[in-house]
UniProtKB/TrEMBL annotation:
Record carries keyword Transcription regulation: no
Top-rank taxon: Bacteria
Residues in coiled coil: 261-288
Family matches, as PANTHER family: METALLOPHOSPHOESTERASE, CALCINEURIN SUPERFAMILY, SERINE_THREONINE-PROTEIN PHOSPHATASE CPPED1
Name of the protein in question: Ser/Thr protein phosphatase family protein
Amino acid sequence: MMRFVSEPSTALKIQKMRERVQWKAPSLRDRGIDQTRFVIDDPREQNAFSFLVIGDSGSGRHPGHFPQRQIAEQMLLHKDECRFVLHTGDVVYLVGSSEFYPQNFIEPYREFLVGGETPTKIKFDQMVFNFPFLPVLGNHDYYDLTLFYGVLAQVSYPLRLLLRKKIDLDIRFHGSYQGKAFAQAFMDTLWLKDPMHLAEHLDRHYTAETSTGRCLKYEPGLFTRLPNRYYTFRYGGIDFFALDSNTFNEPIVPSSTQEDRGKLLDRRNEIEQEMQQLLQELSRLNVNQPEQSDAADDIRVKLQQLEEIQLDIDKQLNTEASVTDYEQLDWLRDRLIASLNSPDVRGRIIYFHHPPYVTEATKWYQAQTHAVRYRLRQVFDDVAKAVDIKERSIVDLVLTGHAHCFEYLRTVETGHADSNINWVICGGSGYSLRRQREEGTEIEEDDRIVAKSQLFVGRTGQGKDKQRPYSFLRIDVMDGEPVKFVLRPYVSEWSQRQWHDRALDPIVIG
């Protein structure tokens, strides 16, 4: 079977990330350090503040344009008025490789980095941000190359150059090494510290005092590392919870019957044949001609969409080996309960990669989407039993990516504690955009509506009239209680081989 990428198991993801941060090592435990929390060192902090949100951004240059850089330039117009950037995952495509951090991350976001005036001198594992940049892991940040493409990466240079020119999927020699590149780029990888200097490092950078113990101090311009793959921080009276949804997105219901498995296998084979046909079409195009270059880009996008569907099918076929990251989910439950009981907190925002509710055409029906919805509901239901939430929601806002679009949804009465919550997908910040599903804007479960899409911004049109509206989000947090948010979506649309920048109407929440 043809594959571009492979995905490590959930158990391996958890194991590797624990090793990288020296999870619960004696030197950290003895100091009472909370490895899931940090404090932003910002003397300007106040209850009224703004921040930016992006996601699914990590692509390189396209023929004639550079979507990620275009969005970054528009974000810069808000930098002085905002306090940090949240990134909902897929920082670097296609396989989270360290080889692509220079061109797919450092170059487009150079003004957010210390030394950004000479971005080629910045090493991916030594980045320091002059403006807090707070990402979570996307699925592509965990991907690796399949053996087939790993072998192709070692062939002669002329053949490798031809392969890259035609397929152009941001692939070279290796993948992420199970998320290692992301960890080295953004996390405090304590496993790389000399044991003789680990104590000195902890005593220098883990100095913030909180109700859960000492924790890391995030110092813009000096030390800008994250303590873990999931974490929390408080700013302006708002608790932010960043999750790694890659470790709790395993399908819920196994496809155990022969009929169900047969249907999945048939679908996977159909996808395989379609991918082979697309590759043949791609080989016949001249990417040096603008129109054929656009057609080639569309084929690459379709190939990547189909491969994601294949991976989702594989998860459903192999549920007997699945693992769920209950340690992280229990952590979220306990921290939400503590936050709701704290008089110092006036609101809560969660952000992670895989959206529980979405109407983008390739994601709404996937098993991973339903799995994340189900498991997040379990957490919210447990919190609701422990805390008298009365008329308020458990969280005020949930931010995700993965679906390559901008979308704002609201749940209605779901029968669970995720009712009447605002859900925002910010996954259109640089990589290929996708369309809204034809099935409509209302999401149903068991023949009843559980969520409604209020706004969708994604790919539209065909051929020369195709429109690609890339996006980012600014969120203004108002002072006072109950908390109020103003969501301000911004769009940079590529159409007719030109950029058109615009602001969409604000969305007021609260």
